[in-house]
Design brief:
mainly beta, 1 helix, two-stranded antiparallel sheet
C-alpha cells in the first residue's frame, strides 16, 4: 500500500504551537496550492488543504514559517472522525506532514513582520576593496 503526498503552497494563517496532555507538540494549519492549469481568460484556481504536524516538525514550522510563506511538505493523507459539541459525528481528512522544507523563496523580516518576497535578489555585503588573496603566477610545469 502507498500513502504519500507532496505539496507546495502558501500558509493561509499564522501558526500556533500547542501541546497535548502528554506533552507532544502539535500544530495544524492550511495551505493554498495553485493548480497547474487554468482555462484561458480565467483566474488560476486554488485548492486548500488541512495539514497537521507533530513533535519536532511542529516546532520547526511554528518557528520558521508565517502566514503567506511558501512551504513544501511531504506526508500522508489521513482521515478521522470525532464527536462535535452538539453530538454529531464529524469527518476530517488532513495531511499529516512528516517532512517540511523551505522552498528557496527569500523571506525578509522588517519591523517584526514577516514578508515573503519571490525576488531572488537580496542586499549583499559590500566586497572588500583589497581581496584577502593574491593572484599566483601561472606555471605550466604542474606535477600532475
Amino acid at each position: 500500500m502507498l500513502n504519500r503526498i507532496v505539496l507546495m503552497g502558501r500558509l493561509t494563517a499564522n501558526l500556533e504551537l500547542k501541546s497535548t496532555t502528554t506533552g507532544k507538540s502539535v500544530t495544524s494549519f492550511s495551505i493554498a496550492v495553485e493548480r497547474n492549469y487554468n482555462k484561458s481568460g480565467e483566474e488560476r484556481k486554488v485548492d486548500f488543504f488541512n495539514v497537521v504536524c507533530w513533535n519536532y516538525t511542529a516546532e520547526f514550522v511554528c518557528r520558521y514559517f508565517a502566514k503567506g510563506n511558501m512551504i513544501a511538505l511531504e506526508g500522508k493523507l489521513q482521515s478521522r472522525t470525532y464527536q462535535a459539541n452538539d453530538g454529531s459525528t464529524r469527518y476530517v481528512t488532513e495531511i499529516v506532514a512528516d517532512t517540511v522544507s523551505f522552498t528557496g523563496e527569500r523571506v525578509q523580516k522588517a519591523n517584526n513582520n514577516t514578508k515573503a518576497s519571490s525576488s531572488t535578489t537580496s542586499e549583499q555585503p559590500p566586497l572588500p576593496s583589497q581581496p584577502d588573496f593574491e593572484n599566483m603566477p601561472i606555471d605550466d610545469d604542474l606535477p600532475f
